[in-house]
Amino acid sequence: MSASQGNRRKQIVVAITGATGATLGINLLIALRHLNVETHLIMSKWAESTIKYETDYHPSNVKALADHVYNINDMAAPISSGSFHTDGMIIVPCSMKTLAAISSGLCNDLISRAADVMLKERRKLVLVTRETPLSDIHLRNMLSVSRSGAIIFPPVPAFYIKPSSVEDLVNQSVGRMLDLFNLDTGTFERWSGWEKD
Ligand SMILES: Cc1cc2nc3c(=O)[nH]c(=O)nc-3n(C[C@H](O)[C@H](O)[C@H](O)COP(=O)(O)O)c2cc1C
Ligand SMILES: *[C@@H]1O[C@H](CO)[C@@H](O)[C@H](O)[C@H]1NC(C)=O
């Protein structure tokens, strides 16, 4: 291994899809920026809509948070190939449609193709799946991708942090996602036993 490879920045592929919770993806991009991780962003068409509807960001401002941005239809992008090395991928939030595409190996857009590459190369793939309630189809797809090596991470709030804002909950969720990549945001409270009065 050359010195440059040994010292290279961590590289993570971030995909944002059209499930509710666009703010989770945005907060994650900001956290990775603070951690000096190189980000490769893909956004679905419906992600652009939820970003506009749910947040104060325009999709172009979200794209500006990433180091590299790819069009969802660009199957020739570097991250479409296993030969392009990355440290993993996180889909946040991940719709049931994109989950289904990954579960079936469809690869019909760059998000499901890049995820398919992560699984075949045995790299880390985290799916922040968001839907409720869950049907048999959703549960079956989650089990199948989990058995193929993905981590299913629904953004379930941790009430033990006694959140005083949505931002507290988002930071805690994003912090726990990044724990999976051995990255510590330092922006949320960890459980350290019952608090003494
Ligand atoms: C405001 C809004 C919220 C949505 N929330 C969810 C959701 O939480 N989970 C989900 O699976 N789909 C949700 N959808 C539907 C997806 O956007 C839709 O299935 C879309 O085809 C997903 O495509 P994508 O994965 O390529 O973004 C939502 C749609 C809208 C407009
Ligand atoms: C949430 O995290 C961001 C950094 O990602 C930080 O700037 C902000 O202060 C945090 N918010 C809270 C409420 O801790």
From TrEMBL:
EC number(s) for this protein?
2.5.1.129
Q: Which reaction is the catalytic activity of this chain?
A: dimethylallyl phosphate + FMNH2 = prenylated FMNH2 + phosphate
Residues annotated to bind dimethylallyl phosphate? 160, 176
Q: Which residues cross the membrane?
A: 12-32
- Binding residue positions for FMN: 18-20, 44, 95-98, 130
Coiled coil located at which positions? none
* UniProt keyword annotations, A-Z: Flavoprotein, FMN, Membrane, Mitochondrion, Prenyltransferase, Transferase, Transmembrane, Transmembrane helix
Q: Where in the cell is it found?
A: Mitochondrion
Residue ranges constituting the Flavoprotein domain according to the UniProt record: 10-179
State whether keyword Transferase applies: yes
Main subcellular localisation: mitochondrion
| Any GO CC annotation of this UniProt entry | mitochondrion
Molecular function (Gene Ontology), one example = carboxy-lyase activity
- Known function: Flavin prenyltransferase that catalyzes the synthesis of the prenylated FMN cofactor (prenyl-FMN) for the ferulic acid decarboxylase FDC1. The prenyltransferase is metal-independent and links a dimethylallyl moiety from dimethylallyl monophosphate (DMAP) to the flavin N5 and C6 atoms of FMN.
Subunit structure comment from the entry: Oligomer.
Check the record and name the PANTHER family matching this protein: FLAVIN PRENYLTRANSFERASE, FLAVIN PRENYLTRANSFERASE PAD1, MITOCHONDRIAL
**Family, per entry:** Belongs to the UbiX/PAD1 family.
Q: What is this protein called?
A: Flavin prenyltransferase PAD1, mitochondrial
